[in-house]
Each structure stands twice: as C-alpha cells, then as structure tokens.
Input
Amino acid sequence: MKSTVSRGVAVATAVVLLSAGLSACGADSGGDIVRLGAILPMTGANATYGKPLRQAAELAVNRVNAAGGITVDGRARKVELAVYDDGTAYAKNIPQVFPQAVLRDHVPFLMTAWSTYNVAPLLKANPVPTVDVLAATWQPPVTDLDDHVFLLRPFTPDIIPGVPTYMKKKYKARRIAYIGPDEAFANGQLASLKEAAAKSGSRVVSEVRYPADSTDLSSSVRKALASHPEAIHVGGSTQAVAPLLTQLYQAGSKIPVSMYTGMTPDQARDLIGPGLYGRVMAHVHEFEGVTPQTNPSRAAQQFGKDFKQRYRSYGIDLTQWSYDAVWIAKAAMEKADTVTDKEAISDALRDLTVPSATVTGWRKRGGERLFNKQRQATSLSVAMSWDTAHNTWAPSYYYTAGLPGQTVRRADVTAPDTSATKG
Amino acid sequence: MGVVIDAVTLGSLYALLAVGLSLVYGVVGIPHFAQAGVVATAALLMVYLGSHEVPFLAMVLLGMLAAGVLAVLIERFAYAPTLRSGRGAAAGPAVALGILMVLDSGNLLVWGAQRRAVPVPYSGETMALADERISAVRVVVVALAVVSIGALQLFLRRTRTGRSIVGVSQDRIAARLMGVQVRRTSIVAFFVSGLLAGAAALAYGTLTPAYPYMADSVILSAFVVIIIGGLGSVPGAIVGGFLVGAVEVAGTTLISGAYAPVYAFVVLLIVLVVKPNGLFGRKVRSA
Output
C-alpha cells in the first residue's frame, strides 16, 4: 500500500515537473516566441471591457507577426499573447495571477487594465515594464506607485475638465449637479469636475453618491434634481450610468447630462432598451478619449473598420489603446534590443518615440516622445452629442487637458462622419 | 409625494423578493440564497425572448414558468437530498450559496456578462399624480407586487395545497401526521417561489439592466426584510419589505444615499432587540 502511494506521489511529482518544464520552455522569451502578458478582467463586473481589450490585442499580435514579429539582435521572433483573468477582483486575484505571469511564464512585458493599483506593489520585488491601458482612477496616479508603470489611457484629468467648459459654452450651464456610485473611478471624476468647474467659473451644486450596488436610484436622482442644476454629470462606468440616465428621463428631466463612460450606441440600446434609448440619450453628452469612429486619425478609423469586420462589434476607445500597447511593446523591445531584459525594456519605453504603427494618434511629448516625465501618454479627448437621427454619437468638441493643470485646450481638427456607426 | 412613490416602489420590490424567500424558508428551513440566481435566470431569459420578438405577455409567462421549474429542480436535486441527510440546518446555507454560484456561473456561460434591459412596452410611459411625474415602470413594479402577493395570499388561504404549505411551514411533523404530503407540498412551494422570482425579475429588470449577478446584492436586503418580518412569515415579509423600503428612501433623502444599506441594518438591529423573532415571527426552528 505504502509503495503504491509512493509511486503515485512520484508520478504526480514527475507530471508537475514536466509541465513546469514545458511551461518554462513556452515562456522562454529568449527563444523564438515572445510572450506578452495581459492581465485583464475576462470575468466579473468588468468582463464587458475585458473581451474587446483582448480582441484588440490579439488583432495587433496577428499584425505584428504578419509584419515579421519582433526583431532583436538580428533575429525575428513571433509574438504570443498570454491573457490572465483577474476576475474583476483585483485585491483578491492579482496576488495569484501576477506570479503566474511573471514568475511562472516569465513574461517580459505586462499589459494591465484597472488592476495596476494591485500590480504595482508586486513590481518592487519583480520589476516588469507594465503598460496600463485603463487606470481605475488618478488620485494618486498609478505611475506614482512604481516607475515601471506606464499609463497609456487618456484618463480622468484628460477628459473631465472638458465637461464644465463645454456645458458652459453650449448651454451656458454653470450649476452642475453630480450623481454617481461611491467608488474610485466615479469619485475621481467628481474631484476633477470640482476643480475644473471652479477654474471655468462654474460650480458643483450637489454631490449625490450612492453605494455601487444600489437597488433603486430614484431617490438619488430626485435629490440631485432638487438642487436646480443647469447640467448634470453622472459618474461611474457604463453599467453604473445606464440606469441613472433612464431614471433621469423617467423623472421628466430635460437637463443636459454629461458622462465619461465609453458607452457605445450598441451598449446604450442594450442597457436602456431598444424602444427607449433614443429618447433617453437625446440630452446626453459623452466625454471620452477619441474612439476609432470619432478619431480624426485615418489609421484609427481604418482600425475601427477592421475591428468591426473581424469581431462584429463597435470598437470602443480602449480597443485602440490595447491594440497600440502591443505595438509599443514591439517598439520598446526592438529599441532596447532585448526581449528578456526588463529594465532595458523599461528604459526604452521612457524614451520611446510614438511608434508609427500605433493608431490612437498620441500627442508627442518633449519632441517625439510617447510618454511624458510622469510616464503618461496623451491623446485627443472629445465631447459628443447624441445624433437622434441616426441613434449614434456625433463628435462636437475636440480638446486636450491633463495633469498637472487640467487646462482645457481646444483642438482644431475635422470630425469624421459618424452617422454610419449607429447602434 | 415623489419620496412616497420611491418608498412604495422599493418596498414593493423588497416584498416581492422576500415573500418567495419566506415561503421557502417556512417549508424547508433553508435560507434560499439561490433565489438570486433564479431571478437573474428569469430576467436574462426574458431579455433573450424579448429581443427575439416574442410578444411581451408570452415573454413574461415563459420567464416566470422557467423560474418555477428551475426552483423545483433546485429543491429536488439540492435541498431535498440535504434535508434527507438530516444536515439541513448545518449544510443548508452552504448548499444554497453553492447553488447560487452554479447559477451565476451558468448564466455567465450561457448569456455572457453583457447587461441588458428587460424589454417592456411601457418603459418610456409616464403618468401624472399630484403634480408628480411617475414612470409606468414604477407603477408596474407596485402592481406586480400587489397582484403577486395578493394571489399568493389567496392561494395559501383558499386552496388545499396552499393550506398544506402553511401547515408544513408551521409544523412539518404535525402536518405529516395530519396526512399532508410534505414532499409534494415542498415542490409546490418551490414552484410558487420560482413564479414570484419571475415576477421579481420583471420588476427589478426594468429598474436595472439584467446580468448574471444582478440579484446577488438585493437578495441580501431581502433576507434582512424576512428577518425583520419574522423568518417564514409571509405577512412579515410584506410589512418588512415596505418598512425597509421606506427607511432606505427616507435615509437617502434626509441624510445620504451613500449609507443606504446601513439604514436597513439599523432597523434590523432595533427590531431584533425589541422582538427577537421578528415582527411576525414564531420561535426560530432549531432543525
């Protein structure tokens, strides 16, 4: 009996060692394959975003490989994307997922979304260049947490300052009510909104926050309306604001509403309902980083068409950043002339010029650089109104903002025709 | 006036969720956390049917029926074996949570994580009441609760099967000695709780988009409601539902919405101090 057990243990040990060995072989970035790690929310509340992030990165990986892969030391290597699911439970899952990517699979480059606050502390002991395509909030900026973190996303301070500027310009609205869930992303919007409103001569007249899993938002809506606002900003993600928009409409409000969500026309239809969304969205303005459809860059527009053709879905703003993250990894590794030296790749990222194959239309910093001294990239932001004739967004105001001053500067660009992107 | 409407709407939703839980708890003595999964399944099925041009009434009836069948399957394949093993009190809550996880994951697999509104023809309609504009969605939530709970009360009081459920709920052994078929009664109670979950899915799915985890939080509020009302008491679930709804809305309006779940727990603590078995509760069963 004892020998049977011992034999079983020996076989199991051998299997584990063999699979670990195979795994290490597959992860050998010094070999013919470079494995890029992507820690994404493939399940849980943010799974809606995990899927398009993965799709865009996979599209980029295919194209990088079609273009010859990553050439280092005169040798071309194929790229592979390894996706690790954080389950949208960052505090709980990142301590398990990060070692899988970095210690087991030895990925030389990480792409993250939302989880960077939990990833950053682990980079101290195991530094890996980490490009964050979708930061949770900005207080403090994720780039302050570790100098291997690079922020790609046009984030809250790039976008929210446009809200009071635009609402005052278009509606002469100076009294802004805020409603949003009590969570980091929404609270960051409120902080930025208050600062930007004060700068532009407007003011936040009410701040209504509710628990993220509230059953009914009607009393929060009622409380915000009671402050007699001239504009309303709804904070939070697409999922959080959809019931708010519906209940504002059902309460009879015709006050212009602003939000920063990345909500697509398709999502508006699904979340609000096909019979109602056109009416609900009529007073809503979306503020966000440019999407493939609203981006004046032709490369981004073509990417949007390709993405839609391949995945049959409207490519939202974050798909461009995810797509570009792969090209940025390639450029940094080729500049550093290594696919394994993580410090050298991080150094290359710091000085990286905007790679020509990226599609977002990154604003060049300090000459031709992609990242500024705080390791943050910036692209155009846009205010969009709802096109009631076509049930889609129509860009109406392009601008840039961002830290440290959150100063809004209008960008004089020609908006593409978005009427074909209806939901 | 608007505040009253909000309180009545929220109270109706809580009551609708709580009566189903209370009914099941009364019969099997297990906190039926899996009801959240039944609600989500029904809502997601309604979304699917509605988006495939199935007429509204058929969509609702099929959704409720599916919820009823699902609840019976849960009773047959999860709770009944647990009760037969004699470990219902200890293992019941764990089994219920396990079934909820299975349903959540199953729904995620089948429907995906996308949130979608349950399509109803009245979502854009409003009506005026005392200078207040009221959404038809809210009126329907209240009407659904009144009709469903009214029908449940009639069923429990006027039918032989209903009286059997009440009997089993009061004393399982005595009911068996009186000739009540406890297993059959249990199946019927679960089917009815499923129908109520279907009605709750329609009500809740018009206030918030449907997705696999949509009812996991609200079901906890519904449990607070049934503890306040008295475990296993249907009238207690109704009164508790409206009490919690009113307190949450008043707290949000007068203090802050950020603490909405806390208000219900404050009421729970007060009730438990004053009436440890809840407002309408009997002595809590020990097995």
Q: What stands out?
A: Chain B touches chain A through 46 residues (CB under 8 Å). Chain B has one domain: 2-212.
